[in-house]
Amino acid sequence: MGKTSIVKIMERASGHPVKVGDRVWCNIDWATCRDFGGANAVLLFEKEMGKEAKVWDPDKLAFTFDLQAPAHSEKVATNQKIIREFCKRQGVKRVFDINHGIGQHVMLEAGMIKPGDVVLGTDSHMNLLGSVGAFATGVGNSDIAASYIAGKNWFRVPETMKIEVTGKFKKGVCMRDLLTHIIGDLGAGGMDFLAVEFTGETIENSSLNERITLCSMVTEMSGKVPLIMPNGEVLKWLVERAGPEVEKLAKELKADPDAEYCKVLHYDVTDLEPLASCPDAPDNVKPVREIAGTHVDQVHIGSCSNGRYEDIAAAHRVLMAGGGKVSPTVRTIITPSTTEVQLRCVEEGLAADFLKAGIVFTNPTCSLCTAEHYGAMPAGDVGCSTTNRNFIGKVGKGSHTYLMSPMTAMATAVKGCITDPRDILK
Amino acid sequence: MSVKGKVWKYGDDVNTDVIFPGKYTYTIKERADMAKVACEDLDPEFTKNAKPGDIIVGGKNWGCGSSREQAVSCIKERGIAAIIAKSFARIYYRNCFNEGLPIIICPAAVEAISAGDEVEIDFEKGVIVAGGKEYPFPPYPEFVQGLIKDGGLIPHVKKELGLA
Questions:
Q1: Tell me: the pLDDT tens digits for A401-421?
Q2: Quick check: B154 and A154 CB within 8 A?
Q3: In A, which residues are within 8 Å of B42 by CB distance?
Q4: Fewest CB within a 10 Å sphere: which of A137, A190, A274, B16?
Q5: CATH of B2-137, one of 3.40.309.10, 3.20.19.10, 3.40.50.300, 3.40.50.1980
Q6: Each residue of A161-186: pLDDT tens digit?
Q7: DSSP 3-state assignment of A383?
Q8: How far apart are CA B75 and CA B96, in angstroms?
Q9: Which residues of B touch A (CB under 8 A)?
Q10: What is the pTM of this model?
């Protein structure tokens, strides 16, 4: 019987053979924190090990200031300072301060992530790094502090679900719609504790931003790690950023053809239509045409799920096809995932079009995925967003959010109510 | 060890945002203060009236969503004796062992227990006693038992590495 990707990754990281169900100690390639969680993790480490204690390897720590960037209050500013000073004392160089963007995206662009890497982070969407074949997972402060001691942590070797995807998306439909479909199908706990390999022609031909979208939303089904080994253009991009060994790793860590899966699912996207997650849960899924016309107060495009350049460019195409203006009754906010994405939007003229359209085009952050950030909504307001969660109260007590693709979100901003993007992209 | 307490009962997919609202994650660092806002957006009655020794009973996928450990700390600090659920979201499950909050997976007991019931949990025997009936639950995996015995992940790592 062959091996799944996660079994191969954990054998490499633990240095010995493993089987599904084993609990094994793995070497950590990156222990990362955000401005959220980071201060608590470093304070916990110092409390447990002493103020003078050194982390196992400062070159394997990273901090990303992505949630409240720039700091919106003195308390947040103080948290960020705690991290900066810890990094100075410990000699940590990978500090991505407030001018960088969303952690996983920044680390990907910086060439820090390779297939098979074991990455821990205080971000439940850390596992989107499975889009380049890394085993990345969200953890709490204790797991980070414990990892600082010796660069090791324990994991259960998970069962793997395989999802094969075939077909081509029709106009106005994209990877986000497929994910929304899968969440509706499997439910919020549908991947609990599982590794998930995405395969099939649709995946093999997909771009990095599509793979990121797909992998980021696995968290909303409580999955442990999504995995897609890089190929084609994604492999080329990653080799340029992270070095030539990526190619060898991607090949070695690909699942064997006779690997054992706990479940195999098949989806064909040919007849897929635009979908939305309705209030107040990602798995409360309906076709956009069924909720079309719903009043909306705010639209937001961005986040680790859909804040790449291609996502923003897809929204831009809908905007221009719809006349280049958003409805004056809808507050529209676009947040690129990183400074690199933001700069490209500026250089290629998208940013100017957004400003002329009446859109707030912000610096790169996690923005509305975090409470008390700009874009908070008052009670009674309805929002549409490309973020990954619409839990009750997340963006403001008494407000409600629909989750959707960047194209549907922009069509909604243009028309002032929930709109199927195919009505604009005719 | 056995505990006996009054039950607060909830449904499936209770997420960490309602257990510990995101707006507090930047500002509250003291554990005692975390306890004061526990479950604020899930059940204000719990926030006001939950007592040490009470027991939470949840449905499937308890603790889904964000990785924030405060969603465990606030319940542990509130003195909640245990959480019984049909299943736990994996990051929450891990954080519970790291924080030393007892959790039990027992779908049959969840079905049988109602809000306000008095329930007893005998950890040694591995049974929940509710409404005069016993509901057995499986022992923790051996590895996890080691974590619990050592008092959580950090002491366990120190011991494994010979630092303690």
A1: 999 999 999 999 999 999 999
A2: no
A3: none
A4: A190
A5: 3.20.19.10
A6: 999 999 999 999 999 999 999 999 99
A7: strand
A8: 10
A9: 12-13, 15, 17-18, 21-23, 25-27, 29, 41, 60-61, 64-69, 72, 87, 89-91, 94-95, 98-99, 141, 143-144, 152-154, 157-158, 160-161, 163
A10: 0.95
